[in-house]
Design a protein that fits this description.
The protein is mainly beta. The protein has one domain. The chain is built from one helix and 17 strands. A hairpin with a 6-residue loop joins strand 14 and strand 15. The chain is globular and about 55 Å long.
Length: 309
Amino acid sequence: MNLLKNAIKKQSSILLSSLAFTGFILNLSQRELKAYPNTVAACTGSIPSGKVACLVDPKSYELDIYSVHICTRDPFPAEASKADLTSCMTLFKSDSPYTGQLANNTFTLPSTGMDEIVNGSYTHTAVVFSNKFKGSGSYTSGGKTYRTKVYVENSGTNVTTDPGDPVKSTETITNWRGVDGNSTNIYCKDGATVSRCEADYNNYKVTGIITDASLNSVSGASSARLFYLAKLSNPFTLTSSSSGSIEIVVDNNYEVFGNNAGTAVQAMTIAPFVFQPTYVSNWFINYTQKTRFEKPQKITLPLKLNINL
C-alpha cells in the first residue's frame, strides 16, 4: 500500500449539504423549524424568513478528528451501546486528534494508524470527532454584511453588522434533547434519544452518536466524542489486488436564519458536513486527470479526501 495522500479541496458550489448538529441546539426554543426529514437550500443573496434557513460557506470551520473508518456492516446499530469496529478498515487513527480546518481550500490528513487493505464489500463509513465544533461565518445581503460574534445569553442573536472579522465560537454537543434531556429534537427521527440522532438532511441519511473516549454511548458530563455514521449510497468492494484511491467527498456549511420578515439575519449556526466515500481505480484516476487538463471548465472540484491504496 502506498502512503496516505490526502488532498482536500473545497468546491465552489454546494455539492452535499450538512447535518446541522450544533444548529439543533441554538435558538430551538425561539423558532419552529421544519421537522424530520429536513431540507435546507443554498443562500442566494436574500435573507430567509420565518421558519426557513439557507446555507453558506463558513469563514472558519475546525474539527478535531480522531479516526476515519470504512466498514462492511453497521458499526453502531440503534440497539448497541458501544461502537464495534471489528468490521471496519481504519483509514486514520490517532490518540492526539488532527485539527482539520475545513474552510481552507486544502489540508492534509496524516497517514497515522492506516490499516493494510482488508478484503470486503464496504457499506458504511464512520468518522470520530471531538464533540466540540469551532467556526465562524458571514453573509452579505442587500449591501449589508452580517458576521458571527460571541453569543451573549438572552441576547437573541449571535450575529452583528459592526465592522470587523467574523468571531469564532465553540459549540459542544452533550445531549441531543436539550440541557434537561426532555426536549424533542425536530431534526432527528422520533425526536432523538439523549445520545443518538438519526437525521435525514437534504436527502442524506446520517447518524450522530455522542460517546465517551471509549466510544460508549453517553450524554452529559462524560461526553467526549461524536461518532458520525453514514450508510454508503454506492457500496464498493476492496481486495488485496485493489489499486486506486478512496475519495471521500464532504461539505461543510453555516445555516443562516432571518427574522420573520426576512429583513435581517438573526442567527448563523455551524452545520457539520455530510460525506460519501467511493473507490476509484487507477484507470479512472488517469482518465479524470486527463479530462481535468483538457476541459477544466466542466470539472467541479469538491472537498475531497484522496487515500491512495
